[in-house]
Amino acid sequence: MASYEELANSVIRGNAPKVIELTKSLVESGCDPLEIINQGLIGGMNVVGARFKVGEMFVPEVLMAARAMSSGVEIVKPLIAEGDMPSAGKVVLGTVKGDLHDIGKNLVAMMLESAGFEVLNLGVDISPEKFAEAVKEHQPDVVAMSALLTTTMLAMKDTIDVLAEEGLRDKVKVIVGGAPISEEFAQEIGADGYAPDAASATELCKNLIGQAS
Ligand code: B12
Q1: Which of 125, 179, 122, 124 is nearest to 149 (CA)?
Q2: Is 150 helix (H, G, I), strand (E, B) or coil?
Q3: In this structure, are 77 and 128 located in the same domain?
Q4: 193 Cα to the center of ligand 1, angstroms
């Protein structure tokens, strides 16, 4: 039988066909979709992150690994989002201006959807103005911003400032996340919350929406 370790290794090697084959095989043998994601797919991507950091892997390999991981996630996603749950709330989500990292953000989207949230995923490189427009148009409960670069994390503050200027800040809860973000930073820029990973992002949104009502 396929193992999570084998799946993680195929992500690390960027072997999408193998990732698809192993993910399908794990699903067929009745493994928990969330475990397949956390232990196999994210498990592999975590190793890729560590190797990239120390210069053992390079951008093209990282991209191949990310694509391989996504092809596995695509298979598992419908199984998680399947539950016929009423909407737990509406979340507008995006990666901030100047930042193109979207793997973690998309995981957050997926986890939120699986927990019954309606998610409007704006994409990457989203300017403060675009976030504000989306808030006006969709009137979400939560605005969620992702940043993976120390240079782009400040765009989170810019976005909060623009929301305030447009009179929208009090209408939504703002949450932030991404590898360089911390609880302290979130407080400093006036966000309502921070979560270190996709699973806790879901808890955070539930708590914040619970407080609001
Ligand atoms: C994959 C990757 C890329 C890919 C991105 C592909 C894609 N489609 O996303 C590519 C190759 C394109 C890339 C490019 C660059 N990258 Co890069 N990249 C990474 C890498 C290896 C992994 C990131 C990742 O996907 N992690 C896996 C996910 C699952 O984790 P995550 O994003 O942290 O998300 C989790 C949590 O943070 C949280 N979360 C995330 N978002 C949110 C949002 C909310 C609201 C909440 C609550 C939670 C939350 O939940 C997620 C799931 O649990 C990291 C290294 C690392 N260890 O992080 C470097 C890294 C982020 N990159 C880095 C750099 C420098 C760059 C480049 C500038 C490189 C270059 N010289 O060109 C460019 C910048 C491009 C740009 N303008 O954005 C640096 C940043 C350094 C810094 N401190 O600023 C890092 C840390 C690598 C390093 N150590 O040098 N990168």
Answers
A1: 179
A2: coil
A3: no
A4: 20
- Look up the CATH number of the domain holding residue 106: 3.40.50.280
Domain count for the chain? 2
For a pocket test of ligand 1, which of 42, 101, 154 has the largest count of ligand atoms closer than 8 A to its C-beta? 101
Q: Give, using CA atoms, the residue closest to atom 60 of ligand 1.
A: 148
Per-residue pLDDT of the chain in tens (213 residues, 90 and over written 9): 789 999 999 999 999 999 999 999 999 999 998 889 888 988 888 888 778 778 898 878 988 888 898 899 889 888 876 543 457 899 999 999 999 999 889 878 877 876 678 899 999 999 999 999 999 999 999 999 999 999 999 999 999 999 999 999 999 999 999 999 999 999 999 999 999 987 788 889 999 998 665
Q: How far apart are CA 135 and CA 151, in angstroms?
A: 24
Whole-structure pTM value: 0.80
Domain interval for residue 198: 90-212
* Distance from C-alpha of 144 to C-alpha of 104, rounded to nearest angstrom: 12
Q: Do 96 and 130 meet the contact criterion of CB atoms below 8 Å apart?
A: no
What is the CB < 6 Å shell around ligand 1? 42, 45, 48-49, 52-53, 59, 62-63, 66, 98-105, 107-108, 144-146, 148-151, 175-180, 195, 197-198, 201
Domain containing residue 72: CATH number: 1.10.1240.10
Question: What's the gap in Å between 137 CA and the centre of ligand 1?
Answer: 29
